[in-house]
From TrEMBL, chain B:
Protein's UniProt keywords contain Aminoacyl-tRNA synthetase: no
Name of the protein described by the UniProt record: ABC transporter permease
Assigned GO CC terms: plasma membrane
Organism: Bradyrhizobium barranii subsp. barranii
Residues annotated as transmembrane: 16-34, 46-65, 71-90, 95-115, 162-183, 212-231, 294-312
Amino acid sequence: MTDISKEAMMPSRSFLSQDAIQVFYRLLAALLICAVLAVLSDSFLSLGNILNVLRQASLTFFIASGLTLVVLTAGLDLSVGANVALSACIAGTVIHKTGSPALGILTGLACGGIVGLLNGIMVTALRIPSFIATYGMLWVLNGLTYWYMAGETLHGFPAGFRQIGSGYLFGLPIPVYLLLVFLGIGTLFAQRTIWGQEIYAIGANPVAARLSGIPVARRLLLVYAVSGTMAGLASIIFLSRLNSAEADIGESLTLPAIAAVLIGGTSLFGGVGTVFGTFIGALILTLVLNGMNLLSVSANWQPLVTGIIVILAVWLDMKTRRRAQ
Amino acid sequence: MREAAVVSQPNPLQRIPGVAIVLVLLIALFSAIAPGFLSVANLSNVLVQSTILTMLALPMTLIIMTEGLDLSMGAVLTLTSLCVAIVSLATKSMLLGLGAGLLVGAAFGFANGWLVAIVGIPPFVATLGTLGMAQGLSLIVSDGQSVVGIPHSVRDIYSATLLGVPVPIVMALVTYAAFHGLLYHTRFGTYIFALGGNREALRYAGLSPNKLLIAVYAIGGAMAGIAGLLMTARMNSGHPTAGLGLEFDAIAAVAVGGTSFERGNGWLLGTLLGVIAVGVLRNGLNLISMPSSVQVASVGVLVIVALFLDGLRSRA
């Protein structure tokens, strides 16, 4: 049993060095984009813009980090954007009703987590393929959110609560600190804990993982619940940053989050990728969209560019891996 | 080859109950609780409104039979609807508008097929990427505005009748007949069964599974083009978000209709009944004044239940 278990762990260990190379390439790409933008636009290198990019990237990263774990198991969570919208609307209502931000934050995280758990149950107990289960969930959540909000907008939250998304600490936006914290936690969890390594093993070879005694269903439940909870966290940041909640805030969030994961080098086929790569992915995507903004390209172009980037990222990833084999 | 097709067709007796029961239950439910549901005017309204969905759900059945998926269909429909609107507005010709819609739709379908078959990207991600692209192009070509002032020749398609039958229903029936013939009575149809069931067999038979797969996705895109004409005619305008999310209703109809996501078998009549079931569900909820948000959530639940039952059957 222990022999098999070791073998199942092997791929993730041996990929670490390759992961480092992949992350290095992506950092280079990010720097290259920075250089191009610095030449093309005078305002790119201003402190305000750079902080703006970081804050924007952190929002994408929160959603994408949980999603990374799901993709590592060869699954997908298409419901994250809709989950952010529902969690934000419910958390916003709780803050309005009780006046307590702490209670609102807890509710938002819990709502996200419960949705994630339901996704996990559909994937493990009901054995529905993850992309279709979470796609169904997307529409259920959309419907629930629109019904719950009935066209209303929630706005005006306590000043203390708004600090989370729009405040600064030592000159840096608070979401950037949260980004660093969750980047650290995510990386440690994935690379340095047994559970994290088991997640890699499940993605690399689910049969081997099961045979070596990994409780696959429980780990998958955990992964989807984490993805949902991170969507809940993102909803809090959104709520606090926008100082308002509407039913449609999640609609443009899913594709960028998936793009960040894929640009970051996490393979759709599972078992390969890092949370840090996803951070770089979020940064690259944000830089591109920010650059378009600075060069006054209409926001109408964003879905087109994001779609092209998703396909290019998967294509490049498959090409490099095929060569590596 | 013919025999293979016959064998892989699901036993109708095994299948009819599922979707038929759902449909009968929904009709019984709304007859009881929704005033005016059973009127001839309302029922024919349900059928006319289901025609666009039929045009998407039939090719979606073929795509799902190949163990694929097309999430871009709603966004491509939106784009083709805009193309029909813009071109017919500029040229005053319905046929040129339809041609433009067909061309753009087929191009997107071809791109989907190419990404899935040749590049090897999993279908749900490849078509998610093209979804973003079609959505973006819709916003760009329309500049986020509605396209109004559509010629009468386009508008009249939705309201005209042929021998007393609304033209959209005639179009849907012709489409169904064409798909039925294609899937059950041509070699190409047999190959589609093989694409989901046994791709190796195709290769041994000297055929190219990749080309066939591209053809299946391209048919899906072209159908979105034809549906785009109906959409523009129905709304009497082109709108940059008109068809978004419609692929979900199509997937729902296919899933409820008993086509499996994992076993490469499909049933077109089941899909047709599934389309009507989705139409009845939305219409009935509408009649009892449920907001469209509840309709969306209900369709979501319908899909998850159908997939759960499908999973149970595949394990049985």
